[in-house]
Amino acid sequence: MSHLHHSEETHQQLVDRLQQSTGTAMPEWFGRLEQGPTLLRFEERVNWLRDEHELSHGFATAVVHEHDKHRAAQRMQ
Fold first, then answer.
1. 2, 31, 33, 58: which sits with the fewest CB atoms below 10 Å from its CB?
2. Angle 57-76/42-53 helices, nearest 10 degrees?
3. How far apart are alpha carbons 74 and 77 in whole angstroms?
4. What is the DSSP string of 8-73?
5. What is the DSSP letter of 75?
6. DSSP H or E run through 4
């Protein structure tokens, strides 16, 4: 699954601040990932968000991690 480079607490703080800091809600970031290029590796998707959407590494990592969790939860249903 995902490879966080920071604590779960820091991750949650990033998730909580994402929309206020970027002007974009998590579901919209999920859509951007899904409509973007087919990148399989975690770091590739993080780097794409950083390069394409000028997200910081922390926010990009948080988005990809949450997206992975969301997709895993959908597969379990």
1. 31
2. 130
3. 5
4. HHHHHHHHHHHHHHHS--HHHHHHHHHHS----SHHHHHHHHHHHH---HHHHHHHHHHHHHHHHH
5. H
6. none
Residue 61 · residue 21 · CB < 8 Å: no
Q: DSSP class of residue 74? A: H
Tokens standing for residue 74: 């959908």
Cα 26–chain centre separation: 8
The model's pTM is 0.89
For residues 49 and 14, what is the distance between their CA atoms, to the nearest angstrom? 15
